[in-house]
Amino acid sequence: MKYTDTVQRKLLSPDDLKRQVKRWKLLQKKIVFTNGCFDILHNGHLEILSKAAESGDILIVGVNSDRSVRKLKGDSRPVNNEQFRATMLASMIIVDGVTVFEEETPLNLIQEIEPDVLVKGGDYSIEQIVGAEEVIKSGGEVKVVPYVKGFSTTSLIAKIQSL
User: Fold this and answer.
1) Distance, CA of 33 to CA of 155 (rounded, Å)
2) Is the dihedral of CA 114, 119, 121, 123 positive or negative?
3) Model confidence over 81-124: pLDDT tens digits?
4) Domains of the chain: which residue ranges?
5) Distance in angstroms (rounded) separating the CA atoms of residues 89 and 63
6) Element (H or E) spanning 158, and its range?
7) Phi and psi, residue 58, nearest 5°
8) What is the SS3 assignment for 119?
9) Angle at which helices 3-10 and 82-90 pack, to 10 degrees?
10) Which residues, 6+ apart, have CB-to-CB distance to 91 below 8 Å?
11) Residue 41 DSSP SS3
12) What is the homologous superfamily of the domain 3-162 according to CATH?
């Protein structure tokens, strides 16, 4: 099988993701979910993704759509479109599934797939993490990965613009 075929199989619509999660759960796989814009992939993202992957059997990444990134970050974002961002994540060996969601938050997606573990970066407290309450109520756990100082997409863009 070609590498590109493997990557394409990981790119799932929200409906396809729900069906795939059911299959993984039948196989008693521990499902881990994280999400974000992932506009310019950097060391902070890699740390979150690697810690998330270590937290279970299957890592699912929710990616904000271009529209939702603009609402959250402003009209100059995203730098990279949703298809590029999703494909970049799907190309990672530690990622098992990637889906793009249209809403500003992944709450609906989290409620539908009911991950066993929800992972976010250290710039959030558990109380601020969308879906944390729902995951905990369903018996799952929420993990916060320590923030990697100096690595944020906004700071990287500012640094590039200052050159």
Assistant:
1) 25
2) positive
3) 999 999 999 999 999 999 999 999 999 999 999 999 999 998 88
4) 3-162
5) 9
6) helix 153-162
7) -130, 125
8) strand
9) 110
10) 3, 7
11) coil
12) HUPs (3.40.50.620)
Mind listing the pLDDT tens digit for each residue in 40-65?
Answer: 888 889 999 999 999 999 999 999 99
Q: How far apart are CA 66 and CA 92, in angstroms?
A: 21
- Which residues, 6 or more positions from 18, have their beta carbon under 8 angstroms from its beta carbon? 112, 113
Tell me the CA end-to-end span of the chain in Å, nearest whole number: 43
| Residue that has been written with the tokens 């881990």 in this structure | 32
Across the chain, the runs of DSSP E, i.e. the strands, are 31-36, 58-64, 97-101, 117-121, 141-145
